[in-house]
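User
Class, as today's exercise, I want you to study this protein, comparing sequence with C-alpha cells, and judge whether sequence predicts the C-alpha cells.
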Amino acid sequence: MTSSSPAAISVSTADLSMLRSYLLDLLVKRAYQEGDFILSSGQPSSYYINGKQVTLNAEGSLAIGRLLLSLLPKDTQAVAGLTLGADPIVTAVSVVSAYENRPLDALIIRKEAKGHGTQAYIEGPTLPPEAKVVVLEDVVTTGKSAMLAVERLRNVGYQVEQIIALVDREQGGAAFYQSQSLSFQPLFSIREIQQAYQAINQ
C-alpha cells in the first residue's frame, strides 16, 4: 500500500480478511486525524475520527456492508443506528444483505421525535413484535449514543442484545455495554488504527 491512497482491490469480491485490511487503510488515511478536538461527549481528545469520510465513500460503504453483515447473528431481522453517524452504515449493511439473499431492514433512530406526522423516533419498516435488531455505530466512546438507540428500539418491543461498531475508542464504552448486558463487538480498536497511522507516518 502507498501512503497516498488505499490499495486497489475489488471490494465486491475480495475475501473478508483482505477487505478488513482495506477498510483499516481507508480509516487511517481518510478518517483519522491528530490535533486538539472536542468530542460529542464533551471530552477533549488529541485525535479525531471522522467516520463519514469512509462510510459515505462508495468503496468504503461496500466494504463496511460486507464486513458487518458477516458479523451479524443468523437470526438478525434488522439493523439500526442513531442518526447521523450510523445512517450510512445501516443502509450499507441492508443493501449488501439483499445482494447476499439475506435481506435485512434498516432502521434510523432519531435523537428527537419527529415534529409532524407520526412523531416517531424510529424511521423505517415496521417489524414484527420482538424482532431481533442489532444496533450499529461508527465510533464508540462512552457508549451512550448507541444505548439511546437500544432504548428506543426496546420501547417499541424489539429485542436488542448486540452492538457492533467500526471503531472502539476504548474510553469506557465496552464496560458500559457489559454493565447493560449487551454484547459489544468493534471491528477495529483505536490502538490498531493508531499503530497503522504511525507506521505510515514514521
